[in-house]
Amino acid sequence: MKDTAAPYVTTDGRQIGDVLMDMRGITLRFGGVEAIKNISFDIREGEIRAIIGPNGAGKSSMLNVISGFYNPQEGEVWFRGEKRPAMKPFQVARLGIARTFQNIALFDGMSVLDNIMTGRLTHMKTGMLSQMIWKGRAEREEVENRAVVERIIDFLEIQAIRKTPVGRLPYGLKKRVELARALAAEPKLLLLDEPMAGMNVEEKEDMSRFILDVNDEFGTTIALIEHDMGVVMDLSDRVVVMDYGRKIGDGTPSEVRNNQEVIDAYLGVAHD
Amino acid sequence: MSADILYTFEVVINGLMSGVLYALVALGFVLIFKASGIFNYAQGVMALFAALTLVGIMEGQVPFAHVINATFGTDIHTFGWTVPALLGIALTLVVMIVFAWMVHTFVFRHLVGQEPIILFMATIGLAYFLEGVGDLMWGSDIKTLDVGIPQGGSLWVENISAHLGGDDFYGFFIDKLDITASIVAAILVAGLIVFAQYTKQGRAMRAVADDHQAALSVGISLNFIWVLVWSLAGMVALVAGVMWGAKSGVQFSLSLIALKALPVLMLGGFTSIPGAIVGGLIIGVGEKLFEYTVGPMVGGATENWFAYVLALIFLVFRPQGLFGERIIERV
């Protein structure tokens, strides 16, 4: 991708990069129900982009479209300047788009370390046999991958539980391990589906700090869905607001906060 | 040592040896069950099919000879060549991998997300289908399989162990084939464990066994893993088929050994590779010892039912098996 474009500056004054992902006129239907109605928005390199909206607004569906779990009936998905054809989720993951799930999808029987190592699968190139015999290139690759994983483990402060089977961890830590696994892929775009759902205030603060640090230190572009308005306003550079499958707002947190339609959707509006 | 104790030892050792064969079949079940939740009733028939194919290839048999002859009025049976054992095994492995791909692509790919009972029914169908195909392809007569594994009692073991007892003890009788089978099985299991623990595909396989969605999100192709797992099960079936076939001839009753794997799995747990091995050994030793000690009192033939009764007892007291995951129902 060319890097000739002038840096994009939000109205809040933060400088972010080129368009990384561009959703153009996305419409997603389940049978006769339109979950997403003709929505367009973009995600720029290096930013934290939030998707918010009341329950059933279609936020998770949108994240599933980005990560390839759903394929939209209409519209185009552009990634890194190229139109992305309809893809299976594992192909999308191999493009460098990692994600976490609202209800946590981890490998319960495997240790924390093994779970995070699965995030490196897309980076492993050596053949099956050389890995079994554990020689040369395969060994070097394994060592390199372990180094990346150890760095992430340090970063997310989960050294103490690295050998623990994930199934035994409490909820908050599971969420953190899931984030670690997604980070291990060194994604170009990180998708977080309600990273703070079901957490107490302290855990939320921890998670917010990690998300900001990830964005800061690794420069990872992040798109997240969140319910907690306070958290969203503090974290994100730009916000998309959805309601009943439509986009009703798009901009910096301060712009969105003052958008009348958004206020109506969140607080309800009297019909007379 | 008295001869009685020594004979008991011999019974135990022979039990261990036949247990290895049970464990081999059970292993094939566990592989598929862990990775896809499918209880593969056809595992025994796969072993039969692999053995039939191996014999057919080695003897240069024309596949579907009966069908071809009946349709075109020809009278061909063999190509007129023979294939060396190693090449034959390699070719059979290729056939099993193609079979794995076909099973996944034409059957189970369309059943993803269905109830376990539906998947189970599909494997029953598969078992009968495969038995029929095996019959059509290679004929239904009993065949001998000779891949060059030494057979008969090991004189070496007999001579060495003869010193242990008195004049009325002539040493342990252990079939060389059983010894070979144990070594091959040990290598196979070690290979599978190394594969599962240390390779990218092995890690992906464990990941798929655990959570499909999460596996997809880290870039694992479920279809690829499932074909891989069926191929591995095919490979295990081939090894089991070769060993059983060499021991007792390749015949259609071979598919019934699948039933012996059931009690083995109930003992060891459906999701545990060590469980399949230990379960197989316990059943092997248990039924030989039981036949030796209790058999004469009840008129013998206890080997037919001992394994199932043992499995029943386990179902009552430890339904998850020795190594299976504990079933905990959270309310």
Automatic annotation (TrEMBL), chain A:
PROSITE patterns: ABC_TRANSPORTER_2
The ABC transporter domain, residue ranges: 21-269
Listed GO MF terms: ATP binding; ATP hydrolysis activity
Family matches, as CDD domains: ABC_Mj1267_LivG_branched
Lineage: superkingdom: Bacteria
Pfam families listed in its UniProt record: ABC_tran (PF00005), BCA_ABC_TP_C (PF12399)
GO cellular component: plasma membrane
Entry-linked Gene3D superfamilies: P-loop containing nucleotide triphosphate hydrolases
Record key words, sorted: ATP-binding, Nucleotide-binding, Transport
Keyword Nucleus: no
Keyword Nucleotide-binding attached: yes
InterPro entries hit by this protein: AAA+_ATPase (IPR003593), ABC_AA/LPS_Transport (IPR051120), ABC_transporter-like_ATP-bd (IPR003439), BCA_ABC_TP_C (IPR032823), P-loop_NTPase (IPR027417)
The protein, known as: Amino acid/amide ABC transporter ATP-binding protein 1, HAAT family
Organism: Loktanella atrilutea
Organism lineage string: Bacteria, Pseudomonadati, Pseudomonadota, Alphaproteobacteria, Rhodobacterales
From TrEMBL, chain B:
Listed Pfam families: BPD_transp_2
Species classification: Bacteria, Pseudomonadati, Pseudomonadota, Alphaproteobacteria, Rhodobacterales
A GO molecular-function annotation: transmembrane transporter activity
PANTHER family cross-referenced by the UniProt entry: ABC TRANSPORTER PERMEASE PROTEIN, BRANCHED-CHAIN AMINO ACID TRANSPORT SYSTEM PERMEASE PROTEIN LIVH
Family of this protein: Belongs to the binding-protein-dependent transport system permease family. LivHM subfamily.
Subcellular location: Cell membrane
Organism from which the protein derives: Loktanella atrilutea
Primary residence: membrane
Transmembrane segments: 12-33, 38-58, 78-99, 111-130, 179-199, 220-244, 264-285, 297-317
Protein origin, superkingdom: Bacteria
Keyword Oxidoreductase: no
Membrane-topology descriptor: Multi-pass membrane protein
Identification of the protein by name: Amino acid/amide ABC transporter membrane protein 1, HAAT family
Keyword tags: Amino-acid transport, Cell membrane, Membrane, Transmembrane, Transmembrane helix, Transport
GO BP of this protein: amino acid transport
Entry's Gene Ontology cellular component terms: plasma membrane
Keyword Transmembrane in record: yes
